[in-house]
Amino acid sequence: MKIKEIKLYGFKSFPGETKIVLDRGITAFVGPNGSGKSNIFDALRWVFGEQSMKALRCERIEDLIYVSPVPKDDANFTEISITVDNEDFFPQFGGEFEIKRKFYRSGESEFYLNRVRCRLQDIQALFLNSGTLTYSFLELSEIEKIIQGNTKEMFDDVS
Amino acid sequence: MKIKEIKLYGFKSFPGETKIVLDRGITAFVGPNGSGKSNIFDALRWVFGEQSMKALRCERIEDLIYVSPVPKDDANFTEISITVDNEDFFPQFGGEFEIKRKFYRSGESEFYLNRVRCRLQDIQALFLNSGTLTYSFLELSEIEKIIQGNTKEMFDDVS
Amino acid sequence: ARERFVAIFDEVKKEFNFVFSKFFEGGQADLVLSDPSNPLTSKVDIAVRMKGKRLKVINQLSGGERTLLAVSLLLALYLVKPAPFCILDEIDAPLDDANVVRFNKFLRDLSQRTQVVIITHNRATMEYADYLYGLTMEKRGQSKVISAKLADLEKLNPDA
Amino acid sequence: ARERFVAIFDEVKKEFNFVFSKFFEGGQADLVLSDPSNPLTSKVDIAVRMKGKRLKVINQLSGGERTLLAVSLLLALYLVKPAPFCILDEIDAPLDDANVVRFNKFLRDLSQRTQVVIITHNRATMEYADYLYGLTMEKRGQSKVISAKLADLEKLNPDA
Ligand SMILES: Nc1ncnc2c1ncn2[C@@H]1O[C@H](COP(=O)(O)OP(=O)(O)OP(=O)(O)O)[C@@H](O)[C@H]1O
Ligand SMILES: Nc1ncnc2c1ncn2[C@@H]1O[C@H](COP(=O)(O)OP(=O)(O)OP(=O)(O)O)[C@@H](O)[C@H]1O
Ligand SMILES: [Mg+2]
Ligand SMILES: [Mg+2]
């Protein structure tokens, strides 16, 4: 399985639609401080079902929606969709499938699996809870947690 | 005021005596991971009166004493002394003075100011408590503390 | 579930020790269950012995050594149960030049079975990647992604 | 004591804003007393407005921006009440190349009145320093300090 494409709309510092094509191997994101690299990291966590505000580095979920210097250009919603090239993990979804997560400033959330509306639990069941992603995200601030022995969570899903 | 010289004996990864001459301006310490750079940072904190084990990255104060691969080569005590070139801060001590802190494996501590035995509070009164060093040490892990508004301590001593 | 956990745990332990001794040129790393009679609810602690040192105290490890230790465990988990992706945010920042090279070599191995995305400021890591994307803010506060070669990026951030 | 505190606090506020807008090419930084009627016991909070952005949320700042913000406050304190020494441990690690240059320029200013000691892995910072010491472990586990020129250090750590 691999991520073929990430599409961000109105997510944090990404105003309009941004498309990023990914391939196998190693892809590096580089750029100045504050240019939006960790925001992409957050976008991937969020689309796979992350619910913790602390992990997404914001106070309220509205903080995920792009805020412009001029109020009229603020985004009304944010949407992340990823296209996954799937051979070995979830045969029930065929060769390729798409996951989409949307949040409106009005407070509604929407989740899609292959363009069919679904619930957050459906996406979480595929990824976060299935152990597929328990140790897939690592940032520098988590190193201390691992060293101090909070590794149980990483193991729970391995078995 | 400036540090003219640091002498380390049996401190953490420094087995025998190590002498480091310092001058005005900017001095950089470089070297591979685990080579002893932050141990010098700890040595300076300790000689100026630091008492917190957490700030010195150890569990017990004995952990400050050099432990060798072979038990018979362990150091029996650790000692840090710094020579300070003093024009503007503490006129009562003349042009130059030395601070020394020693700790024996047996548990005794010794403090010296210009080779005269003194108490820890005397050294702390000069440095840590006089505000001279409240914001003199900064490591990456403390950045979060400052951002989250724990800056009061830095101010207390400025006034 | 219990037998499965113990079987996998033992495998991760083995791989953890293997990766650790490669990063640290020797030494041993171990995973210890705080309550071996109840593996499913027990805490998992890390024990480490550096080559040529008697001390076993994790607290005394340096900044770079702690990062390498955590990365060793992560890689061990991937070796035992490969996950489809691995997304890393500035993990190479505390590492010295020699350890950045070792780290990138392991990423290369990992990328045979797992898609790796890494955020970095380290030029050596940029050169190691297969694909490179640059982030820039042409208009203040608005992120834009450009696909780039390393040489192009230098032009983009002139004082970089 | 109260008047003294308020006078110094206002001065630090001014310098903080000055340093911040140099690092961030604009914007404002402010220090706010949580209880202005009791300055001596009140908490001191940081408020920030980045140029071209309406948001004021500190939590959304990036890793490098948080480091620069903390360093701006530190430098402001030194400008108001210079301390004899300043000892920094890998503070430049989260910074991109352009911010490392700005950071080093401020260190240079600071070093006119204050003795600066910095631990770093960043080559640009090494080149900026007046004196350079290398740490090595010829015998495992035993630190040794050598005074060095940058060129010598390259030889010492061949794969650096
Ligand atoms: N909802 C939002 N609307 C607009 N901008 C936002 C929003 N949320 C976050 N930002 C901006 O995104 C920027 C942070 O981006 P990010 O954390 O991705 O930086 P980075 O590229 O990882 O930088 P570094 O190299 O310092 O880690 C901040 O400047 C913040 O103001
Ligand atoms: N009492 C002691 N006796 C012997 N060695 C010790 C003692 N205390 C700490 N050490 C060793 O010192 C090393 C850590 O050194 P230090 O933290 O200064 O590294 P560093 O140069 O800052 O590295 P990095 O670049 O990774 O931050 C550890 O490997 C640890 O084993
Ligand atoms: Mg970041
Ligand atoms: Mg260190």
Overview of the molecule:
The complex is a heterotetramer, with 2 copies of chain A (159 residues) and 2 copies of chain C (160 residues). Chain A is α+β, with helices and mostly antiparallel strands and 159 residues long. Chain A is built from 4 helices and 8 strands, in the order βββαββββαβαα. Chain A has a 6-stranded antiparallel sheet with strand order 2-1-4-5-6-7. The longest helix of chain A has 11 residues, at 37-47. Chain A is globular and about 45 Å long. The model of chain A has no long low-confidence stretch (mean pLDDT 90). Chain C is of the alpha+beta class and 160 residues long. Chain C has 5 helices and 6 strands, in the order αββαβαβαββα. Chain C has a two-stranded antiparallel ribbon. In chain C, strands 3-4 form a two-stranded parallel ribbon. Chain C has a two-stranded antiparallel sheet with strand order 5-6. In chain C, a hairpin with a 7-residue loop joins strand 5 (131-136) and strand 6 (144-147). Chain C is elongated. Chain C starts with a helix and ends with a helix. The chains are: A alpha+beta (159), C alpha+beta (160). Chains B and D meet through strand 2, strand 3, helix 1, strand 8 and helix 3 of B and helix 1, strand 2, helix 2, strand 3 and strand 4 of D. Strand 3 of chain B pairs parallel with strand 4 (115-119) of chain D, so a sheet runs across the interface.
Summarize the entry for a quick read.
The complex is a heterotetramer, with two copies of chain A (159 residues) and two copies of chain C (160 residues). Chain A is α+β, with helices and mostly antiparallel strands. Helix content of chain A is 18%, strand content 33%.
User: Which of globular, elongated, flat, extended, rod-shaped describes the shape of chain A?
Assistant: globular
Strand content of chain C: 15-25%
Question: What count of helical segments of chain A does DSSP give?
Answer: 4
- Sketch the major β-sheet of chain C: 2 strands, antiparallel
Order of helices and strands of chain A: EEEHEEEEHEHH
Helix share bin of chain C: 40-55%
What's the gyration radius of chain C in Å? 19 Å
Ligands, deduplicated? adenosine-5'-triphosphate, magnesium ion
- SSE class of chain A: alpha+beta
Global outline of chain C:
elongated
Helix percentage range of chain A = 10-25%
Mean pLDDT of chain C: 90
Largest interface: B-D, 54 and 68 residues
Report the mean per-residue pLDDT of chain A as an integer.
Answer: 90
Low-confidence stretches of chain C: none
- Distance from N terminus to C terminus of chain C (CA atoms, Å) equals 52 Å
Number of strands of chain A: 8
* N/C terminus separation of chain A: 20 Å
Order of helices and strands of chain C: HEEHEHEHEEH
Give the percentage of residues in beta strands of chain A. Answer: 25-35%
The biggest beta sheet of chain A is recorded as:
6 strands, antiparallel
